[in-house]
Q: What sequence folds into this?
């Protein structure tokens, strides 16, 4: 049994906390809000984030960062755009940090592992990512994800320590590839949601998802991910899940945009963090700067920024020249 710290009492932080507890560990969840921590300790639930899920007695919550100082591993499960400011409150951490947010820091273009390196230079980082909705994981439905670290031994040890029969963790030594797939799929899921909101049909969904995968692969490879990682759980696997399910907040956000809602209304309908919004802008910017062909991500960024609308972007994508399906070289 280990002591596991969780940064963030959102849907995913609490789902992972319940996994760690079921795997036999003692779990301490940090919530920024003391009332949230008190509610979890008193009721063993947080209905707002994980309706219908009850936590066990080995899971406690706190709002005091130093309460996590004895953790043997810490899972960072706050949204990508606030990771830096949250880590600043945990400058004493020495244990390995498992990064669970799926996004790229918008201001810097840095991946989560790079943000960790700047904030806590001596702490080993791992990436946990893959097709897994918090509600499914918390209910104990079967899921499979990837845990990546430059040191495969570390990834293997923690994959073994945190796995359950219904939460299978595959170790990997390609953290960059795992991170890039998880971040970019959120942008592409918004596009698939928009297409569904516009009732473009199942054939369009399949075509868009496949072309989205081509985009994710180009971007992932250009930024140093391994091709096989991009075809795995954290790349293709998560893209397939989030491009097809209303359980995804990114997809739901796109669905509402496609149905004619404003970005503010669409965000309210998505109910929770929509990582693809901030990540779309930075993915489109990095793709422009590095000359990576990312038409779908550029379209999503243009719609989100208000510079365009779904109709114009769909027309633009359909009018692209018909080129060979696969880029050579
Ligand atoms: N919900 C899901 O099914 C999954 C989510 N993820 C990823 O996990 C990350 C977190 O998502 P969720 O937990 O689902 O989001 P959520 O919307 O349910 O919760 C976000 C949490 O972050 C906290 N937070 C926001 N700003 C903060 C700040 N400045 N300081 C401290 N805490 C702050 C909020 O209070 C809230 O507890 C995202 O990157 C998401 O892509 C990954 C896999 C599955
Ligand atoms: O990453 C997820 C599933 O793997 C969750 O997707 P959303 O953030 O779009 O809800």
A:
């Amino acid at each position: 049994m280990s002591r596991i710290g969780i940064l963030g009492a959102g849907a995913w932080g609490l789902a992972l906390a319940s996994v760690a507890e079921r795997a036999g560990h003692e779990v301490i969840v940090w919530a920024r809000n003391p009332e949230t921590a008190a509610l979890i300790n008193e009721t063993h639930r947080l209905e707002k984030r994980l309706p219908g899920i009850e936590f066990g007695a080995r899971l406690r919550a706190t709002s005091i960062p130093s309460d996590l100082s004895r953790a043997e591993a810490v899972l960072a499960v706050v949204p990508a755009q606030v990771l830096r400011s949250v880590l600043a409150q945990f400058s004493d951490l020495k244990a390995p940090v498992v990064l669970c947010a799926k996004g790229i820091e918008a201001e810097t273009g840095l991946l989560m592992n790079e943000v960790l390196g700047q904030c806590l230079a001596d702490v080993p980082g791992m990436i946990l990512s893959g097709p897994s909705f918090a509600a499914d994981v918390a209910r104990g439905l079967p899921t499979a994800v990837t845990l990546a670290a430059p040191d495969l031994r570390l990834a293997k040890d923690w994959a073994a320590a945190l796995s359950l029969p219904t939460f299978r963790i595959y170790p990997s030594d390609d953290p960059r590839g795992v991170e890039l797939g998880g971040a970019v799929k959120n942008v592409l899921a918004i596009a698939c949601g928009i297409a569904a909101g516009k009732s473009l049909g199942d054939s369009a969904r399949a075509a868009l998802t496949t072309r989205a995968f081509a985009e994710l692969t180009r971007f992932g490879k250009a930024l140093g991910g391994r091709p096989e990682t991009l075809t795995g759980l954290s790349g293709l696997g998560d893209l397939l899940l989030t491009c097809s399910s209303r359980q995804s907040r990114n997809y739901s956000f796109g669905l509402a945009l496609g149905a004619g809602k404003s970005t503010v209304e669409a965000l309210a309908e998505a109910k929770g963090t929509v990582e693809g919004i901030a990540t779309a802008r930075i993915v489109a910017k990095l793709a422009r700067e590095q000359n990576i062909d990312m038409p779908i991500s550029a379209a999503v960024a243009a719609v989100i920024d208000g510079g365009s609308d779904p109709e114009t972007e769909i027309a633009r994508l359909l009018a692209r020249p018909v080129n060979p399906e696969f880029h050579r070289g």
Notes: The longest strand covers residues 143-148. The mean pLDDT is 97. DSSP finds 15 helices and eight strands in the chain.
